[in-house]
Design goal:
Number of helices: 17
Radius of gyration: 42 Å
Largest sheet: 5 strands, antiparallel
Order of helices and strands: HEEHEEEHHEEHEHEEHHHHHHHHHHH
Strand content: 5-15%
Strand order of the largest sheet: 2-1-5-4-3
Number of strands: 10
Helix content: 40-55%
Number of domains: 3
CATH architecture of the largest domain: Orthogonal Bundle
CATH topology of the largest domain: Hypothetical protein af1432
CATH class of the largest domain: Mainly Alpha
Length: 495
């Protein structure tokens, strides 16, 4: 029972009547218009308050101090006595100038004040409830916004699922939150509060889901709510203590992925509609992102097949360089590992190396397979293949970051290369790496007009052009690989 702000009401009525007013609850006074007590009347108020509590009705008493006491119960929204309104009158020489309080009028005054107090209580409770709901709504919106931002990505992972479940647990204060996806074990996670004591949590959650499916196989609404396990024979046997939980299907376009659920041993509350809506929304988001992730991986696989087809087409056009792209790719990956290039950049370099000669698709076979040295015009045509390669890759968005490696792999470190005649570190790193691998394989492979050089000769030439055609630092990396094991460089020779 709150008494905030009632002192003004009590003081206002005290000024227009000979009565003093107070609000009491079972613990004592919680609101008063005047605590001064020169006539020692307030000593009788605790007993009066207790009697009004017991009677739950209006009481009027006189006492030896020549005073009169009045009391009226105050009711809350559940019609239970939440406090009492007390009034007292002292028969003094000063008060005799005023009219003594009439019993009927006093009862009317107390009823009026009680009505104002009860109305204020109701308003306060409504306000508190609204603030609480708004606060929870804000938490839910904040959680949903945070979750939606995180899961709308094609890099969805088990770590993100784990973080998401912890966010849900902390924001809606549950003992356990879980995601169960039978066909995606990496996305199956359970997080629990430190206080919860359940043996074999995965087994327990599996039993929950099995009971859900057994109790309601259809689940037309896509979710299952249980607010008290004691009300169900099927669920009560799963845990000795009563619990409540909610399980929501993770589904997209009728494709079922699994379950998202919350569990609590706190039986002082129920699963709220707002919590249901929040979990349904999050489950929908997860379903969408899993479907998109699957689609992305399918597209990526499709892209890989396109790349493989392009490589096969290149090799088919140039009968003397069969396996060249794979061998350049192999050496490039060895150098990337030696350089400590991160996983994401290695993936870009991977495609750049495989596709570095894709522009040769646009070069006539008569030029590619000419059994003699090329004339100036033919050489200019060949020199155009990096540009054509970049043009071929450009429409494929997932390969767009590979374009610089393809476009500039024939630039020379001293600036005499093509197509842009850039030099030094102006040349993209991936292009400089591919250039070393491409040069070594070109020297040691057979051509229509000459026999390929030995590995030793190719290694010597690579070092001769270090600092002019090739990046000297990357040549040193190549030398370390060559020295460590020539066999690693030969792995692509029979492709």
């Amino acid at each position: 029972m709150k008494s905030t702000g009632f002192e003004e009401i009590l003081s206002g009525f005290s000024k227009i009547s000979p009565l003093k007013f107070e609000i009491w609850n079972e613990k004592g006074v919680v609101g008063s218009c005047d605590l001064e007590d020169p006539y020692k009347v307030r000593q009788f108020l605790p007993g009066m308050a207790a009697r009004v509590y017991a009677a739950e009705d209006f009481l009027h008493e006189k006492n030896p101090k020549d005073s009169e006491l009045f009391g009226l119960p105050l009711f809350n929204e559940e019609d239970s006595v939440a406090g009492v309104l007390l009034a007292y009158f002292v028969n003094t020489r000063t008060n005799k100038r005023k009219t003594d309080p009439d019993l009927g009028n006093t009862k009317v005054i107390l009823a009026k004040i009680a009505g104002l107090i009860e109305e204020r209580w109701e308003m306060q409770n409504e306000s508190d409830t609204l603030i609480s709901e708004l606060d929870k709504s804000y938490e839910s919106l904040h959680l949903y916004s945070n979750v939606a931002t995180q899961i709308k990505t094609l890099n969805f992972s088990s770590q993100m699922i784990l973080h998401l479940l912890n966010e849900i647990k902390d924001n809606i204060r549950m003992d356990m939150v879980f995601s169960i996806m039978p066909d995606r074990p990496d996305y199956s996670e359970i997080v629990c509060s430190e206080e919860i004591k359940i043996k074999d949590e995965p087994g327990f959650v599996a039993s929950l889901i099995k009971a859900v499916e057994k109790s309601n196989k259809e689940l037309d609404e896509g979710y299952f709510i249980l607010n008290n396990s004691a009300d169900s024979k099927l669920f009560s046997k799963l845990n000795k203590d009563p619990f409540r939980f909610l399980a929501v299907k993770i589904i997209h376009n009728k494709n079922f992925f699994g379950w998202l659920g919350i569990f609590s041993l706190n039986m002082d509350d129920i699963i709220k509609r707002s919590e249901l809506r929040l979990l349904v929304s999050i489950a929908e988001q997860i379903g969408v992102v899993i479907a998109n992730t699957d689609l992305y991986h399918n597209l990526e696989e499709f892209g890989i097949n396109i790349v493989k087809s392009l490589i096969v087409t290149i090799e088919a056009k140039d009968v003397y360089t069969g396996g060249h792209s794979e061998r350049v790719h192999h050496i490039t990956m060895l150098m990337a590992k030696a350089l400590g290039i991160n996983e994401m950049d290695t993936k870009i370099l991977n495609w750049s190396a495989l596709l570095h000669d894709v522009g040769k698709i646009g070069i006539p076979e008569s030029i590619l397979n000419k059994p003699a040295r090329l004339d100036d015009k033919e050489y200019e045509t060949i020199k155009n293949h990096p540009v054509k390669g970049a043009e071929i890759i450009a429409p494929l968005e997932y390969l767009s970051e590979s374009i610089p490696g393809v476009l500039h792999h024939h630039e020379a470190y001293d600036g005499t290369g093509y197509p842009s005649r850039i030099k030094g570190e102006q040349i993209p790193l991936f292009s400089r790496i591919i250039s070393v691998a491409d040069t070594f394989d070109a020297i040691t492979s057979d051509r229509a007009y000459r026999k390929g050089a030995s590995f030793e000769k190719g290694h010597a030439i690579i070092n001769e052009v270090s600092g002019t055609q090739l990046d000297p630092d990357l040549v040193q990396i190549f030398n370390r690989i060559y020295k460590k094991s020539k066999n690693r460089l030969m792995q692509g020779r029979n492709i």
